[in-house]
């Protein structure tokens, strides 16, 4: 054989037209069919795993451009026992050149389905208000739109009941590949998937296409091309490919699942339980009860109670799938995962009903070598060994056949659930805290719902990934996320600590249970446009590093409210402030707002200030005091000094009132000052320092009064007017002097009557102008125990229609050196000058005299107006002598209320009589006591006798009657 013949034979050997394993390159078939031919294959297919495998090839070209093959769709065709090719379609993702002997080169290809390819596309994105089928559809369409190579190589089909998949508020792809994201969603929702050759609708195409099928109902899977598959043991002679190994397996699985998920909206745990229907034998069932699969899911795992049940059912179905399966081997080439076949000829399976002899393949492993000549095969094996490529040995078929093929597969009875397992500990991607930006509606700085949840924008997402949702996810608006809860230091039923993050703030996002769909805001971060707080709009860090607190910002403006703490060494202070009317409460070491840590001192203590109104309102009293209470120790209402002082003032009022009454100048009404004293004494009764409410005083404590005390003085001043008023009494009392000065006029207005009393003297002086004393409807009475001196620099004028001058002993008039004396002994006139009288006539008719007229007693009306009683004391009843100028002591009960002297009529006045007082007692200087009964209405007979002066022995009415009857 010459060289030409050798080359022709070699080229013929690489022709794949008559081979059991063939490649079909679609539109590239003519160019590549003779360039690269399969020598062996090692491929796996499976539900929820896809297609992946290695194709070992031979080529006559040692200089193959390897990158030419990357991304090309390829159909691996296995010739069946019927002589028809059965395709396994995928996409080449890896090309590896082996050794070459000059005329023969080995090459290895890696074939994967589209989902396997997208394992390398890592992305982060957000889907809003979208169901899992919609997400799958969006992603798969995008793959086709963004890659023409992928678009011509794969198709997809969703065999799903869309009605059972809720639209979730937010689903995130979180730094994971597209493939991992799809697998996670499908596993969670109980969707299985697989790849099959051809387009989803079966349409013919010139490109090797495979379809990704997503399904949730195993009864909808198609029948395999093999249809009915025979079972043959060992190497029995047979006409058709057959199953050669059939091994049934059982696995112990949990007998129940329990899923709990916190529903924070309802404030309860949503729980679902599902039990298996698989019979695992007596001991197995007992163990299965123990192997209950109880998991606490993420909060709000299901969209509803029904959805929660659906997810729990998916978990138990996944366990039931593992409970029973078949491990098998065959040389049947036209079966694939996702298809079902009927097994024939198996001694045990044949005893079952027809529907129980149907099986769905769940995974399949192809291993085969092509039917080349022995010489070519030996050369190929030498190149493989030189390339360090090793392969499992396949069982040989009939001697001389030159074809070796075997597959191993797993299958389950048709109708058994194919739900994939989902374990969040395994299937969730690793997530870590990241930052996001708070967003809201247009123009709204604070955006939240009734639960206080906010919206965020995840930074760094690609805008073109979100065009399908009109930008939701990257729009910078409230459409970018679902409502997100945020961590608060304290959150109770309608109480807690709430400071809603605002639009534009940078927040730290973490994930509940490590689920990327369950975001939670754990904090807010400073940086960039959100620099640290400048309290009072002044200073910055690090200069003001000793300041801390809370500062808010007025929505759509720049004013602030703040609670600021200043921990500057030796200068600590606190401030509660609102920039509205510059209202502040400043405590401690007060300074101007600090800049670079420095602020001019403003004082020490407490300052409450505002440019508007200020009110201190306390329903149980206000106590303003300058009394020292060191280190804030002691009771809040510590008021011993105030109580002592008010008691001293009350005693002074009492003593001066008694003296005033004793001198006919009216007693003082003590009721109000006594009430104030009592209220001060029992002020904190009922509070936590006197919970029993005794307080040592009356009134039950907590009187709504105001007390102001200043040990060194109290100043109340106004640049305008001041009003001091009371609904009842005003008691102005000082143990020392009470000094009233007016720069212009002192005007005193009294609606009833006025009494002024001085124990040791009174001076009334006007330096300029008149001193006028008038009584417009009654008398003017001027009395003195000794003399009344009227002195004038020019003249004393008595002007009246009638002038009556009376003197009980003597009246004298002196004018210059002349005089006139009038007394009981006569009238004496004297003058050193002329006595001149002018009269129409003179009449001297003999001696005469006239007694001095006593002043009229007080009228009943006057007594009533003054709340007073008038009592006349007599030596005997009825016509007894009035006890004029008789010293007495007046008692109300056992309490002495006045000392005094009766007037010239024997009359005494009981001032400030209080209605309801039934009687008084008058004690004379000689020890005799006279009962004075008081009757508001008509008197009884006994009371009338008592009023007339008739006395009773020990108050016995009968003895009074006997005295009266005499």
UniProtKB/TrEMBL annotation:
<feature type="domain" description="Putative type VI secretion system Rhs element associated Vgr">
    <location>
        <begin position="553"/>
        <end position="659"/>
    </location>
</feature>
<feature type="region of interest" description="Disordered">
    <location>
        <begin position="684"/>
        <end position="703"/>
    </location>
</feature>
<dbReference type="Pfam" id="PF04717">
    <property type="entry name" value="Phage_base_V"/>
</dbReference>
<feature type="domain" description="Gp5/Type VI secretion system Vgr protein OB-fold">
    <location>
        <begin position="476"/>
        <end position="526"/>
    </location>
</feature>
<dbReference type="Pfam" id="PF10106">
    <property type="entry name" value="DUF2345"/>
</dbReference>
<feature type="compositionally biased region" description="Basic and acidic residues">
    <location>
        <begin position="592"/>
        <end position="606"/>
    </location>
</feature>
<dbReference type="InterPro" id="IPR017847">
    <property type="entry name" value="T6SS_RhsGE_Vgr_subset"/>
</dbReference>
<comment type="similarity">
    <text>Belongs to the VgrG protein family.</text>
</comment>
<dbReference type="InterPro" id="IPR006531">
    <property type="entry name" value="Gp5/Vgr_OB"/>
</dbReference>
<dbReference type="Pfam" id="PF05954">
    <property type="entry name" value="Phage_GPD"/>
</dbReference>
<dbReference type="InterPro" id="IPR006533">
    <property type="entry name" value="T6SS_Vgr_RhsGE"/>
</dbReference>
<protein>
    <submittedName>
        <fullName>Phage-like baseplate assembly protein</fullName>
    </submittedName>
</protein>
<feature type="compositionally biased region" description="Gly residues">
    <location>
        <begin position="691"/>
        <end position="703"/>
    </location>
</feature>
<feature type="domain" description="DUF2345">
    <location>
        <begin position="700"/>
        <end position="848"/>
    </location>
</feature>
<feature type="region of interest" description="Disordered">
    <location>
        <begin position="587"/>
        <end position="606"/>
    </location>
</feature>
<dbReference type="InterPro" id="IPR028244">
    <property type="entry name" value="T6SS_Rhs_Vgr_dom"/>
</dbReference>
<dbReference type="Pfam" id="PF13296">
    <property type="entry name" value="T6SS_Vgr"/>
</dbReference>
<dbReference type="InterPro" id="IPR018769">
    <property type="entry name" value="VgrG2_DUF2345"/>
</dbReference>
<dbReference type="InterPro" id="IPR037026">
    <property type="entry name" value="Vgr_OB-fold_dom_sf"/>
</dbReference>
């Amino acid at each position: 054989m010459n060289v030409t013949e050798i080359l022709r034979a070699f080229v013929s050997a690489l022709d794949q037209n008559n081979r059991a394993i063939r490649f079909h390159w679609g539109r590239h078939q003519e160019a590549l069919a003779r360039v690269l031919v399969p020598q062996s294959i090692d491929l796996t297919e499976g539900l929820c795993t896809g297609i992946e495998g290695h194709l070992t090839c031979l080529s006559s070209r040692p200089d193959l451009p390897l990158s030419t093959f990357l991304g090309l769709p390829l159909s691996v065709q296995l010739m069946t026992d019927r002589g028809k090719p059965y395709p396994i379609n995928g996409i080449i993702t890896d090309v590896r050149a082996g050794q070459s002997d000059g005329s023969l080169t080995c090459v290895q290809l890696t074939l994967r389905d589209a989902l396997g390819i997208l394992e390398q596309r890592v992305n982060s994105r957000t889907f809003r208000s979208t169901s899992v089928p919609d997400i799958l559809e969006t992603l798969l369409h995008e793959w086709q739109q963004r890659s023409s190579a992928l678009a011509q190589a794969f198709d997809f089909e969703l065999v799903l009941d869309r009605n059972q998949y809720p639209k979730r508020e937010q689903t995130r792809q979180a730094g994971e590949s597209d493939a991992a994201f799809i697998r996670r969603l499908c596993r969670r929702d109980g969707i299985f998937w697989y790849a099959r050759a051809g387009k989803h609708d079966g349409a013919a195409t010139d490109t090797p296409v495979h379809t990704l099928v997503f399904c949730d109902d195993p009864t909808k899977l198609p029948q395999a091309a093999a249809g009915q598959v025979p079972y043959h043991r060992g190497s029995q002679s047979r006409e058709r490919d057959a199953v050669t190994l059939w091994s049934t397996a059982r696995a112990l699985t949990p007998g129940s699942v329990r899923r709990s998920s916190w529903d924070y909206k309802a404030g309860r745990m949503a729980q679902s339980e599902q039990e298996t229907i698989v019979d695992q034998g007596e001991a197995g069932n007992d163990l299965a009860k123990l192997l209950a699969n109880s998991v606490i899911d993420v909060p709000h795992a299901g969209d509803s109670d029904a959805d929660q049940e659906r997810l729990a059912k998916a978990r138990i179905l996944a366990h039931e799938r593992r409970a029973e399966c078949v491990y098998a081997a065959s040389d049947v080439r036209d079966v694939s995962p996702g298809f079902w076949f009927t097994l024939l000829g198996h001694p045990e399976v044949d005893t079952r009903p027809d529907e129980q002899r149907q099986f769905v393949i769940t995974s399949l492993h192809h291993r085969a070598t092509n039917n080349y000549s022995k010489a070519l095969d030996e050369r190929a094996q030498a190149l493989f060994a030189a390339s360090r490529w090793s392969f499992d040995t396949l069982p040989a078929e009939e001697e001389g056949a030159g074809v070796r093929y075997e597959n191993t597969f797993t299958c389950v009875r048709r109708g058994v659930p194919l739900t994939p397992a989902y374990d969040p500990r395994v299937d969730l991607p690793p997530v870590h805290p990241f930052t996001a930006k708070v967003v809201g509606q247009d123009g709204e700085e604070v955006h939240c719902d009734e639960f206080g949840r906010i919206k965020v924008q995840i930074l760094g997402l690609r805008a073109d990934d979100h065009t399908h949702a009109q930008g939701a996810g990257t729009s910078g608006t409230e459409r970018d996320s679902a409502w997100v809860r945020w961590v608060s230091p304290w959150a109770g039923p309608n109480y807690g600590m709430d400071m809603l993050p605002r639009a534009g703030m940078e927040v730290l996002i973490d994930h509940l249970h490590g689920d990327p769909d369950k975001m939670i805001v754990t904090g807010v971060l400073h940086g960039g446009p959100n620099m640290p707080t400048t309290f009072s709009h002044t200073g910055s860090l690090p200069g003001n590093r000793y300041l801390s607190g809370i500062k808010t910002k007025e929505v759509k403006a720049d004013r602030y409210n703040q609670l600021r703490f200043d921990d500057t060494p030796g200068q600590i202070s606190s401030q509660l402030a609102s920039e509205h009317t510059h209202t502040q409460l400043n405590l401690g070491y007060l300074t101007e707002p600090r800049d670079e840590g420095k602020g001019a001192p403003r004082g020490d203590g407490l300052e409450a200030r505002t440019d508007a109104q200020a009110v201190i309102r306390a329903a149980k009293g206000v106590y303003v005091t300058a009394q020292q209470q060191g280190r804030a120790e002691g009771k809040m209402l510590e008021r011993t000094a105030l109580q002592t002082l008010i008691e001293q003032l009350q005693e002074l009022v009492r003593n001066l009132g008694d003296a005033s009454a004793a001198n006919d100048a009216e007693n003082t009404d003590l009721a109000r000052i006594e009430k104030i004293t009592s209220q001060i004494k029992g002020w904190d009764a009922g509070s936590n320092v006197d919970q029993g409410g005794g307080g040592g005083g009356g009134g039950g404590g907590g009187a709504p009064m105001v007390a102001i005390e200043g040990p060194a003085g109290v100043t109340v001043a106004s640049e305008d007017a001041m009003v001091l008023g009371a609904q009842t009494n005003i008691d102005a009392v000082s143990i020392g002097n009470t000094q009233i000065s007016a720069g212009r006029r002192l005007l005193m207005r009294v609606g009833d009557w006025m009494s002024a009393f001085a124990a040791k003297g009174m001076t009334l002086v006007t330096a300029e102008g008149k001193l006028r004393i008038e009584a417009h409807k009654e008398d003017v009475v001027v009395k003195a125990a000794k003399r009344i001196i009227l002195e004038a620099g020019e003249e004393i004028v008595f002007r009246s229609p009638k002038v009556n001058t009376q003197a009980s002993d003597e009246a004298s008039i002196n004018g210059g050196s002349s005089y006139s004396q009038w007394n009981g002994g006569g009238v004496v006139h004297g003058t050193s000058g002329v006595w001149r009288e002018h009269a129409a006539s003179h009449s001297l008719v003999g001696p005469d005299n006239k007694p001095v007229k006593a002043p009229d007693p007080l009228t009943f009306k006057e007594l009533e107006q003054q709340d007073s009683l008038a009592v006349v004391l007599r030596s005997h009843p009825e016509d007894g002598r009035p006890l004029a100028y008789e010293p007495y002591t007046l008692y109300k009960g056992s309490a002495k209320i006045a000392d005094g002297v009766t007037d010239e009529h024997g009359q005494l006045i009981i001032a400030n009589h209080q209605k309801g007082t039934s009687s008084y007692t008058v004690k004379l200087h000689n020890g005799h006591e006279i009962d004075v009964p008081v009757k508001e209405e008509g008197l009884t007979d006994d009371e009338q006798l008592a009023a007339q002066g008739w006395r009773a022995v020990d108050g016995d009415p009968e003895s009074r009657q006997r005295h009266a009857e005499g």
